[in-house]
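Give me the fold.
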Amino acid sequence: MQDKILQLRSIIQDRLTPLITHDYRYLMMCDHQNVGDTLIMKGEFDFLSTIKSARCKEYTTMWSFENRHPAIPKDDLLIMRGSGSFGDIWPTAPNFWKFVMKNYPKNPILFMPQTIHFDDESKLVEIADLINKHKKITLCVRDKESFDIAQKFFNCDSYLVPDMAFYMNIKFPSPPHGNNPRKTLLVKREDKEHKPSALIDNLLNEKDITFSDWPTFNVFGKIEKFKQNLSVHKLYRLYDAFIKHIYSTYIIKQGVNFLAPFSKVYATRMHAGILAMMMGKETVFLDNNYGKIRKLYETWLYDIDNVYLKF
């Protein structure tokens, strides 16, 4: 397992390092409650810390950047966080990308590894038109099917790169010892990416299996209220500092502690599975409703012992 993770990190290093040749701005710090996106961000931060030929001029959230709408030098590289949002299911990130591409047409833009999926091809054509007009886009994707879409629709440099969570440096707690009646966990997403299956139904009926979604979903309202209070006084950079130095650490700790007691994890969330395998647990990925997890598994994870994909 560890050898495979080191291999994925090496691929990330080899393919991304040559792409960061200018001082940069990281525009999409994760300020919501999804542990997975925060793990991606952590991996990106840890990777960017290895870049010695360029420096980061700012780390900012989408909310802060849009409200400040700063004037920036045209050579500054704008970095977009990797995600599963490159599509029409979750519109927040694509709407931000459109804002950036339209308002910063002369700046180079780097998309960290994405999964591409559109139910409505007209929306894919719309964002492809913006990318192709911009001329300074570099797009990284994290599975072969997304790479094929990028090659077909986008006139930009495209790269196949593993998910950035594999690059995060985290000290994990020791694995559980002895008999643990709660040794198996089903991380069961409840949103619009949920894919019903007989396997999930069977797991839910097993008395010795714990099931839950990420434990962080109860904090979102508090963050939104905090954001609203700061917006009154336009304290956008204070919010950015809070997200980078306090909130992200809290979210990651919650995710790690959530998985720590278990020796086996069934994951309907991609990054619950990635985190579980990085913690050395037996990991079973269960696909979402449009194949995102399957695509990642078949591209990078199919040959790892103790890591499986089931339907």
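The CA atoms of residues 85 and 91 lie 7 Å apart.
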